Amino acid sequence: MPFRTAIGDQMGKQVWRVLVAGGAAAVFTAVAAVPAGAAEGGVSFTRVQVNGGKPIVIGVSNEVAVPASFRMTTTRQWKWPAVYLYRGGAGMGERLWHAIETSDCVQVGPGVCDFDETMSFDPSVWEMHNSEAGAWKVGAEVYFKGGGGDTDDEGLTVHVKRNSRLTVNASPEPVAKGATITVTGKVTRADWQTRKYVSYGGRKVSLQFKPAGAASYTTVKKVYANASGALRTTVKASTTGTWRWVYYGNTTTGPSTSSGDNVVVK
User: Which residues belong to the signal peptide in this entry (predicted)?
Assistant: First the structure.
């Protein structure tokens, strides 16, 4: 069973590092020359990956589990290795707090361990701020038995984004061929501070259509949402099929696709 150790508090947010008993607290005891490529602190981190290089998109209530992995090389006795997200300096900058669970050491050579890690972001538990959406750097750290540790910048960037949502309604249903179909909807995105979805005005959203029996959608036109996030446009009814809205996101907001609304053309 995992056990938890409190490791800090910043901006009013308590952070816990979740450790796998018998795994993440393991240590090397062999004494050998420092391997080639080891950092100044006697530790090097390589093969670092976070979420497969994809953005981390977080809503207002559901926990998001993000996979990460890394290789650590050191001959020192250690505990609590992990990769994490930060802004500013790798050691002293702002961190994006969350729960971390690290696997057992998979030893691949003298003083060399591979780790799998899960970063868990839960907006219903952690106090998140909308200003935290955007680019974060990836750092790696380890604490040594007896005190001290090593922290390194890994030269990677991960975007953390607020989830977005889209609704759709196409009417009338059914409709005569050649008549006008009105397609409406709304764009909203997660407000981490209120834990609600709020209007996201001014977004450019694609209206897509899939004819009955077809396998894929085609973009028909692009429409800007008004200041309240509302979408509205008209198209001519030509054949029965399904309408939907697609928003492709930006540096702080994730993409979203509405459900489809089928309209029968008679």
Answer: 1-32
One digit per residue, the tens of pLDDT, for the chain of length 266 reads 233 333 333 333 333 343 322 333 333 322 223 333 344 468 999 999 999 999 999 999 999 999 999 999 999 999 889 999 999 876 667 889 889 999 999 999 999 999 999 999 999 888 899 999 999 999 999 999 888 899 999 999 999 999 999 999 999 999 999 999 999 999 999 999 999 999 999 999 999 999 999 999 999 999 999 999 999 999 999 999 999 999 999 999 999 999 999 999 99
Q: CA 22, 27, 30 angle in degrees (round to 5)?
A: 140
- Tokens 């984004």 correspond to 161
Q: What fold is seen in the domain 2-162?
A: Immunoglobulin-like (2.60.40)
CA atoms within 13 A on the CB side of 70: 27
2-162 and 164-263 in the same fold: yes
CATH code for residues 164-263: 2.60.40.730
What CA–CA distance (Å, rounded) separates 40 from 80? 18
